[in-house]
Amino acid sequence: MIEVVAKLGRGPVFLAGEMLECVITFTNPLSASSTSASRAETELIILVFCPQERVWEEVCSEMLAWASAQIHCQFHASENRVALPPSDGSKPDVQAENETVFVPNRGERGQCILSTPPKILFCDLRLDPGESKSYSYCETLPIDGPPSFRGQSVKYVYKLTIGCQRVNSPIKLLRVPFRVLVLHGLKDYQCPQDEAVAPSNPFLEEEEGLKKDSRLADLATELLMAATSRRSLHLYNISNTRGKVGTFCIFKTVYKIGEDVIGTFNFSEGDIPCLQFSVSLQTEESIQEEFQRRRGQPVSFSTHARHQEACLHTAQSSFNLPIPLSSTPGFTTNIVSLKWRLHFEFVTSGESARTCMVRGSQSEAITWTGVEQIEVDTFSWDLPIKVLPTNPILASYVSQFSSANSITI
């Protein structure tokens, strides 16, 4: 028995273009102390047939023929919503008992749309009882791939697959799922011209790959800060067919996942009283026209946060909607497009503000009572916003994926 443990050192979330590093440890958990009794019995048998203690060691050691690792992105689409072209002559997913071909997406649903070249970790590994050996796997994530996404119509799932095989035994696969965020525009800045003269710390010895990966993460952080820190006042008049309801104010429309969307309302200058409003933070998932199952099929909406408030006789109000770190920033591929928006719903009075309250008595202490029935009008409004990725280390804190995965062979 051999235990295989794969651990992502920095966490399970990465930016496209970054380097993924995984340490894979192979351990023979059978210790010498736990097998002393069985060793004595084995030695008696060996002394009769072949009086060499090394024969016992070979019996207790574990052997692996080879191990290989590869990253792939699996795509799955809903048959009721997406019409995909037929795939080109795919081979049947059958594995023989003694097959040694490494297919990382074997048994997975959907199509493998992206994969890195496989890398061999070792050949003919022998582990004595209690012995462990670790191997480091490093690979740069393709910068032009899609982001990780689990929607109502399509799914993009990234996995690192480690394949191991004993001699004359079937292949065992250890899959390590992880999340990929895509920052558009990062590809154009991946290799700056002044890279050779970039400032560095002479007291730190870093590998060239790690330096490049660190520069890429720092560059992504700078681009995100520049795009999301710009603030300018955006004012919108809220009105229906009967007149003005109020104004809405927001200071920016570009955000990172993990930020809060903050907006304010001013109903003091409105002609039509607003009884209630609600604001929903939503994503709009739409399939490209050529891949739609039926013409003109509706888009899919998902609500991530919502604020609702009764606001009769309220002069000003506000809302604060957090963008979940686990959500997917906006993106577009040849099959699907994901956009973000704020969806507003307003309930206004069909009467003037004075008739919304009635006087209860004529005594000195005046009591005001709300009316039992009132005519209302409802209308909605959508405001598109842009949502970008964030620092992958921050997103790792709330990731559903584990940094370490294991399997027993």
Please provide a written account of the structure:
With 409 residues, the protein is mainly β. It folds into three domains: 3-182 and 393-408, Immunoglobulin-like, CATH 2.60.40; 187-229, no CATH class; 234-358 and 367-388, Immunoglobulin-like, CATH 2.60.40.640. The protein has four helices and 23 strands. Strands 2, 4, 5, 6, 8, 9 and 10 form a seven-stranded mixed beta sheet that branches. Strands 13, 15, 16, 18, 19 and 22 form a six-stranded mixed beta sheet that branches. A four-stranded antiparallel beta sheet has the order 7-3-1-23. The longest helix has 21 residues, at 208-228. It is elongated, with a radius of gyration of 31 Å. 24% of the residues are buried. Residues 36-58, 89-100 and 191-199 have low confidence and may be disordered.
Topology:
Elements: E1 3-8, E2 13-15, E3 19-27, H1 36-49, H2 53-60, E4 62-77, E5 111-115, E6 119-127, E7 132-140, E8 149-150, E9 154-165, E10 172-181, H3 208-228, E11 234-240, E12 243-250, E13 254-256, E14 260-266, E15 274-287, E16 300-310, E17 316-322, E18 331-332, E19 336-349, E20 357-359, E21 368-370, E22 376-388, H4 392-396, E23 404-408
Parallel strand pairs: 2-10, 13-22
Antiparallel strand pairs: 1-3, 1-23, 3-7, 4-5, 4-6, 4-9, 8-9, 9-10, 11-12, 12-14, 14-17, 15-16, 15-19, 18-19, 19-22, 20-21
GO molecular function, one term: guanyl-nucleotide exchange factor activity
InterPro entries: Rgp1
Organism: Gallus gallus
